[in-house]
């Protein structure tokens, strides 16, 4: 997407999709539910928001899988370190994704498994 073809409202909704994943700090499964709600509300209205939503949801679902694996590895004490790294990684890339959305760019999250195409 080009900045000139993406309206301010679309950029704002793109930011909201990414930032909505921080709902996970407040409610269980909020990291997935927050972006999912925004995505479902706006996917038909904006191709940009739909792309942001898909990328964000794919990343958050992937991250949930990585956390489950880390939880299992916590029995051998390695998982605790991995969970901390994953939490920090989530925070950093989500902020980067929100900044890219504010610039009218669709951010492709690293380590994301493409569940939603």
Notes on the structure:
The chain has one domain. Helix content is 66%, strand content 0%. The protein has 117 residues and is mainly alpha-helical. The model has no long low-confidence stretch (mean pLDDT 91).
Keywords:
66% helix; single chain; mainly alpha; 117 residues; elongated; 4 helices
Quick description:
The protein has 117 residues and is mostly helical.
* Radius of gyration over all CA atoms, rounded: 15 Å
What is the tally of beta strands? 0
Overall mean confidence score, pLDDT: 91
- Contiguous helical run count: 4
What number of domains? 1
N to C succession of SSEs: HHHH
Structural class, from secondary structure content? Answer: mainly alpha
The parts where pLDDT drops under 50 for at least 5 residues are none
Strand percentage lies at: under 5%
Relative helix content:
55-70%
Alpha-carbon distance between the two ends: 17 Å
Shape: elongated
> How would a textbook summarize the main sheet?
none
């Amino acid at each position: 997407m080009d900045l000139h073809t993406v309206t301010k409202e679309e950029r704002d909704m793109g930011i909201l999709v990414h930032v909505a994943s921080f709902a996970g700090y407040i409610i269980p499964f909020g990291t997935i539910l927050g972006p999912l709600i925004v995505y479902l509300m706006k996917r038909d209205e904006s191709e940009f928001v739909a792309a942001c939503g898909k990328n964000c949801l794919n990343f958050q679902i992937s991250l949930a899988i990585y956390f489950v694996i880390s939880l299992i590895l916590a029995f051998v004490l390695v998982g605790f370190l991995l969970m901390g790294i994953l939490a920090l990684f989530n925070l950093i890339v989500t902020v980067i994704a929100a900044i890219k959305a504010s610039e009218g760019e669709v951010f492709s999250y690293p380590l994301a498994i493409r569940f939603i195409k």
